[in-house]
Specification:
It holds the Pfam family PPR. Keywords: Repeat. This is Pentatricopeptide repeat-containing protein. InterPro entries: E2_motif (IPR046849), E_motif (IPR046848), PPR_At4g14850-like_plant (IPR046960), PPR_rpt (IPR002885), TPR-like_helical_dom_sf (IPR011990). GO terms for molecular function: mRNA binding. Helix content is 72%, strand content 2%. By secondary structure, it is mainly alpha-helical. It has a domain at 654-704. The chain has a two-stranded antiparallel sheet. Strand 1 and strand 2 (660-665) form a beta hairpin. The longest helix has 17 residues, at 674-690. The structure holds one DNA strand.
Length: 704
DNA sequence: TTAGGGTTAG
């Protein structure tokens, strides 16, 4: 009794500042070291205070360690995430134990299973589960149960996890929560919420703060703001509003569902914040298209002395990319070096992506080449980056390099490759990629399907687009919109409108601003004036979508092409938002088609006040004057262009013949057979005239 | 002595 008191006294003194080593030395002298209770306590202390080496030494010096001592050391390794050492020690324990007093018990097992989960070592985990099944005490232990559930969910084996869970006649909140979390982490948030409701409604159990974190994460995954908000209300009623993790998960919910206002309010009212809160808020601004605000809040975070981690850096780099702010991007690059995140694959990928999006190709290439480990995400960023910078051909070459490097593409990578290929618009490659998608099983994913439809449309092969569209088992709004756009860009305006009408009859599919842009531009290209006006009206009044400058541009184009120049002008004047120059540009183009000099002068006056450095507008105007033979005005405009030193970026066409892609620009004579090409063009032109396919030859010649 | 939780890259 006396020694027990002494032990407790000594351990108390440790809490008050005495070091564990000091205690150890002190008690070696008193002989207490032979007391088994003391030994375990001491070892636990060592293990807890990250002095594993000392714990190990003490353990090795003990001749017949008790199960307590084994567990204490195992827990130390586990706490330090030294999973392999944990399992190794456990194996030692199994082989050395020879009596009931040092056999693994129900305290040992959860530690070892956790280590298996840490290594995602399902095989060893299952062996231990086999041992558990033979032992009634272990089988009914909820700590063992929750460790097993964690193992199975981590390895994606939800059926096994459920089997363990169902072995318990009355599982507690922790076990329920383990299952909820498991489903959420495996991307099945719906099942997670269903389980949560079973727990609360059927079992009458009250969730704790950890349960609610998983529930909020599930709502975020489902983008279900309404459900998430009601859970937020519940957390307040239960008095959990000070819980940091819970607040962070709510912040993430608001960020993902686009409720910036809620996120901002919550962030302002948070009882305490940590680096995760700040990172989440930065990402929230990025996701809600306010990258400048994201950069501001990062500055504030640094000023307040919060230490950014790799996630913070990834988020800020996304903000730099979205804001096209390469100066701040370079500063963050320096910071990643200072903080030692240079080898972090996600940080490097974000850097690479940022440089690509800021058109700094050389820097991006440099980052990529220096990456010691290249995963599928960084390859995808690299492929996509080249295509974004107008180097789609090279981008497909990189895809080939990736394959020969032995990295297996995933669905997202394939979409990037499809986009690059669409940029080139070459059908043989498209067919080849489609074949690969079918053989790899990615072709049934909706977002892959949408990209494939777009690719075929851009290769001019609507038939193939239709085939892909029909074959997709699941069609979302993006798939429908791609198909509508595909019809539109290939001149099948009526089909596009028909598709649009079909789509609006599909339950659960609501057209968005992209759908409307596609169908309206289809109307514009085919000259479907009445249909276009009707659909625009529906967009504004039925679907309550505020038209953006692109929608307005298309409408002006549609009205203008059909010669309704005054109506187009009225449309522009009635617009609620500021008129972007390109909208007036569309009207000017229409003035060119219908040769309305008077309106062209009015429009260009307005237009050049807004944007006086766009060579294309001057060229349009001068062409209008030329047709009317107003040569003075033509000369005046041309001089103006010269004085301003403006140049026009020439448009390009590409044609693939066998394995080569040929690029043509206006008045291009660089091709060795250009003489022949022009001759052929002239012949085609004569034939088209004969068949009355063109009424405006000088307009066509402009392009040649 | 023992359990389940929050932010990241294409």
């Amino acid at each position: 009794m006396k020694s027990k008191e002494l032990i407790n006294h000594l351990f108390e003194s440790c809490k008050n500042g005495r070091s564990v080593c000091e205690l150890h030395c002190l008690t070696l002298k008193t002989g207490l070291i032979t007391n088994s209770l003391f030994l375990t306590k001491l070892n636990t202390l060592y293990a807890k205070h990250s002095t594993l080496q000392n714990a190990r030494k003490l353990f090795d010096e003990t001749s017949q360690p008790s199960v307590y001592l084994w567990n204490s050391l195992l827990r130390g390794y586990c706490r330090e995430k030294q999973w392999k050492e944990t399992i190794c020690l456990f194996n030692q324990m199994l082989s050395l134990s020879n009596s009931t007093s040092d056999k693994p018990d129900n305290f040992t097992v959860p530690i070892v299973i956790k280590a298996c989960a840490g290594l995602s070592d399902l095989r060893t985990g299952k062996v231990i589960h086999g041992l558990v099944k033979k032992n009634d005490k272990m089988k009914s232990d909820m700590f063992v149960g929750s460790a097993l559930i964690e193992l199975y969910t981590k390895c994606g084996e939800m059926e096994d996890a459920l089997r363990v869970f169902e072995e318990f006649p009355e599982p507690d909140v922790v076990l329920w929560t383990s299952m909820v979390t498991g489903y959420q982490k495996n991307g099945n948030a719906k099942e997670a919420l269903s389980l949560f409701s079973q727990m609360v409604v059927n079992e009458g159990l009250s969730p704790d703060r950890v349960t609610l974190v998983s529930v909020v994460s599930s709502c975020a995954q489902l983008m279900n703001l309404l459900a998430g908000k009601s859970v937020h209300g519940l957390t307040i009623r239960m008095g959990f509003d000070n819980d940091l993790s819970l607040a962070n998960s709510l912040l993430n919910l608001y960020a993902k569902t686009g409720s910036l206002r809620n996120a901002r309010n919550l962030f302002a009212e948070m009882y305490e914040k940590d680096v995760i809160s700040w990172s989440s808020m930065i990402l929230c601004y990025v996701q809600n298209e306010e990258p400048e605000a994201a950069l501001d809040i990062f500055e504030e975070m640094v000023k307040k002395k919060y230490e950014p981690n790799s996630v913070t850096l990834v988020s800020v780099l996304q903000a730099c990319a979205a804001a096209s702010n390469v100066d701040v991007g370079r500063r963050i690059h320096e910071l990643t070096k200072q903080k030692g995140f240079e080898l972090d694959v996600s940080v490097s990928t974000s850097l690479l992506d940022m440089y690509m999006k800021c058109s700094c190709l050389n820097e991006a290439v440099d980052i990529f080449e220096k990456m010691p480990y290249k995963d599928v995400v960084c390859w995808a960023a690299y492929i996509s980056g080249f295509a974004q910078n107008g180097l789609a051909h090279e981008s497909l070459g990189i895809f080939r390099n990736m394959l020969s490097d032995g990295t297996r593409p995933d669905a997202v990578t394939m979409v990037k490759v499809l986009i690059a290929c669409a940029e080139l618009g070459v059908l043989p490659q498209a067919l080849c990629l489609h074949g690969y998608l079918v053989s790899s099983g990615f072709d049934d994913k909706v977002f892959v399907g949408a990209a494939l439809i777009d690719l075929y449309s851009k290769c001019g092969s609507v038939d193939n687009s239709i085939r892909v569209f029909d074959a997709l088992s699941e069609k979302d709004v993006v798939v429908w919109s791609s198909m509508i756009a595909g019809y539109g860009m290939n001149g099948f305006g009526r089909e596009a409108v028909r598709m649009f009408n079909l789509m609006t009859e599909c339950p659960g599919i609501i057209p968005n601003h992209v759908t409307f842009l596609s169908v309206l531009s289809a109307c514009s290209h085919t000259g479907l004036l009445e249909e276009g006006i009707k659909i625009f009206d529906e967009m504004v009044h039925k679907y309550k979508i505020e038209p953006n400058s692109e929608h307005q541009n298309v409408m002006v184009d549609l009205l203008g092409r059909k010669g309704k120049l005054n109506k187009a002008m009225e449309f522009i004047e009635e617009m609620k938002v500021k008129c972007e120059p390109h909208i007036l540009g569309a009207l000017l183009g229409a003035c060119r088609i219908h040769q309305n000099v008077e309106m062209a002068e009015r429009v260009s006056k307005k237009l050049l006040r807004q944007d006086s450095n766009h060579a294309g507008y001057y060229v349009l105007l001068s062409n209008i004057y030329a047709v009317d033979e107003k040569w003075d005005s033509v000369a005046r405009i041309r001089n103006l262009v010269k004085e301003k030193g403006l140049t026009r970026i020439p448009g390009q066409s590409r044609v693939q013949v066998k394995d080569r892609v040929y690029t043509f620009t206006a008045a291009d004579t660089s091709h060795p057979e250009s003489e022949y090409v022009y001759q052929l063009l002239r012949e085609i032109e004569v034939k088209m005239k004969e068949e009355d396919q063109i009424s405006d030859t000088d307009f066509i010649l402009d392009g040649v």
